[in-house]
Each structure stands twice: as structure tokens, then as C-alpha cells.
UniProtKB/TrEMBL annotation:
The chain crosses the membrane at residues 12-33, 53-78, 99-122, 369-389, 396-415, 427-446. Its main location: membrane. This is YjgP/YjgQ family permease. It is found in: Cell membrane. The keyword Membrane applies. Keywords: Cell membrane, Membrane, Transmembrane, Transmembrane helix.
Amino acid sequence: MKKLDKLIIRTFLGPFVATFFVTLFVLVMQFLWKYVDDLVGKGLDTMVIVQLIAYTSATLVTLALPLAVLLSSIMTFGNLGESFELVALKSAGISLLRFIRPLMVVCSIIGVLAFLFANYVIPVANLQAKSLLYDITYSKPAFNIKAGVFYRDIPGYTIKVAQKDKDNQTIHQVMIFDHSAGGGSGDRIILAEKGQMVLTANKRFLYFILENGWRYEEKGNRGYSVPGDMIRFSFKKYSKAFDLSSFAFNRLNTDLFASNQQMLNIRQLDFAIDSLQKSQVVFAKTVNAYVTVRFPFFRWKDSAWAATAPPLKVKDFEEIIPEKSRHNALERAEQSVRETLSSLEAPTKEYSDKHGVILMHKVEWQRKFTLAAACVVMFLIGAPLGSIIRKGGLGTPLVFAVIFFVIFNIFFMIGEKMARSGVMFTWSGMWLSNIVLLPIAGFLIYKAMNDSNLFNKEFYFRIYQKIKKFLQKFKRNRFKTQPTI
């Protein structure tokens, strides 16, 4: 390796590492902002939040790498151009492709590592992240009774307190409606002047130690006309226990999510796609046999049938049906069509669902390659772009990096959506963003090799001045040739 190669690689690696972590941080913040309502107020441990962020960060690595490569390559060659190092290299007879070559090798290695990461690490991270997020989303909020508000999150109870002291334990004017299954045949109501909320050490039970109150209980069944007995008890001190086990954060078995296409690697996806396609073929044969038996005319068609139907001598089928039988015939035909459509509706939907699952597996298979290849495509855009704009730092390079990444992301989402819906082939839909950006990369490389002034303000100012002088000259010549009256 020559000193020039070491210089360029060393200049590239610093911005790449910095921009990668900044990009990953922004994507993680976007994820947290999206699910902030599901995370806040659940009483989650710090370790659970750390695990969720770690797994989510791993799933976003392949999306952060292309943007990091694009931004760091623009910064690298922008800094070299701003310090006139590119001019010195070109004056020494070194072409643009020569000093791009070492970074091309580095970005190819990054692309290969991105594919290996997407194939072996991301499926495991997706499995853990999706299952953990599911558990968090469907877990109950932390126990928190607010003054003046009916609290119904404890199964079988409705609680209301008029006032809570600053210690968050002393409560006043307590109302408890017990309509749980174990509360007897009727509802029970507890009223108390004040009380204390005491949580056990394992946070499994919450005790309400109430003072100076009444307990009302109705005996008998509500469904009968005979009224039940109303029993009232007074107490000076009464303890009521509430089971908080439903508030505990419980993890489901991750095997429940293991069959999803996002949790599979290339080999597992190939096996799943093959199994799904075989299942689809068997289902199609079953439906075909069902239709053939139910509608026998399918079996009668053979080589003796005419290729095209003979022309009808009547304008309407109703003309060949006697008038007295026309109404009954039309009703029977309409009923037969309705029954046929209803009998085929369920198989059609099931076949469509099976085909959609196959498409999602194929999309996931292609995704592992497209995002890895995007690292190389983004470098082919960023390297010549940086040598053209000749601006370092984070200002101008960041603007161009965001523009091209937005273009990449838009076409990537459009292609994925079309591939999932079957509008495009899965390979063409998932590779759409790279296909769109490759000609742009070739154009920028051509302009950079020819020292183009594509982003030079002076270049456009000169063009503007030439156009302005041409218009002024044209205007003068027009007035000179205009005849006088």
C-alpha cells in the first residue's frame, strides 16, 4: 500500500466513524419519538430500556451505513479539494479514479460486512427488539391513582380518591367499587374518610389501610324480581389488598415471533419461500379440483370445442326465454351467480394472503443485498461530488448528503411498496433506488474527471452574464432594424 492510499484511507475513516454514530443516533431518536407513548408511564426498568435501544440500534445499522458513507466521502474529498490537495494530485499526473480506488476497496469491504451483519446479526436483533417492543406496548401503565379521577386499570375494581397528599401515600375521601368475580353475587362499595397506600417489597400487592368508613354489600341475584338484602358495615380501620400482578412486565416466548420473515437469514428465507410456494401450488390444485367438481362444464371442454363462439342471432338472451319463464330464470341465474361468487370469495382471499406472504419473504431476501450494495453506490456519488463542490466540514456536504439520501429513501420505499403489492418484481422493486442513483453516480464521476464547474457559483454567474449580454445585443439590433414612421 502506497503512502497516498494510506493518506486517503486515514482521512476517510475519521469522518466515517463520526458520521456513522451521529446517523445511528438520529435514527434511534426517531424510533424513540415514534414509540414514546408506549414507553412512558410503564414503570420500565433501566435495563429494559437499554436492551430495547441496543437491539433497535443493531437493526438500524444497515440503514445508517449508506448515509455515513455518503457524508464521509463528500467530506473527505471536499476537504482535499478545499486545501488544494486534489489539485496537487492531479498536477502530479494522478487521475481521479486512481485516488478513489483505495476508498472503493474500503467501501466494498464495508458493503460485505453490512451484508454479513444483515444476514447473521440483524435477524436475531429483530427477534429480540420486536418481541420486547410487543411486550412493552401491551403491558399496562404503572399504577398511578390521580385525585378526582376514576381509576379502572385494576381488574374488577374502580377506585376514586378526592385528594392525595404530597407523600403520594396519604389519600382522602376514598371510594372503592368492588365488582370482581370473587366479590359475591352483588357489587360491594367501600367509602372511607382517609387512608394509606402501602406497596409490598416485591411490588406484587398494594394495601389500602382505610380509616373511618362504611362498607356496603348487596346480597342476592340481580336477575330475579325479589330484591336482595343490603348489608352495611362500619369500620374504624380496614385493610384492602389489591393484586398488582397484571402490572408486572412479563416477557413472552420469543419463539412466537421466530417465523416472521424479518427474523430469518438467507438460508432460512430460501427454505421458507420454497415451502410457501409448494403450499401455494397444493392450495391451487385443491381449489381447482373443488371448482371442477362444483361446476362440471369445466370437464366437458375438449379439442372439439370451437376456438371462438359462433355469433348470436339475437341481441339479448332475454329474447330466447319465454316471457312467462323469464322472471324465474333471471332470479335463478342471479342466485347461482351470487352463490358462485360467495363460494369462491374465501379461496381467493386465502390465495391472495399466501401470495402476499411469499412476496414479503422475497422482499426481505433482496433487502439484505440492496442495503449492502447501497454503500458502494453512495460512495460513487459522494467521492466525485466532494471533489466537485470542494467544500469540507459539515455545512455544504451535509446538505448534499441529506438530498441524495432522501432521494435514495424515497425510491427505496416506493420500490419496496410496489414489490410487496406485486406491482413490480421483487428484485426490481428492491433495487429501484440503486438503479436510479447509479446513472447519477456515473454522471458525477464524468464531471469530476473533467474538472467540471457544476457547483461553482462563478461558473453560473458567467453564464448569466453571457446570456444578459446576448439579450441586450439582441434588443439593440432589434430597435436598429425597426423601420421609422
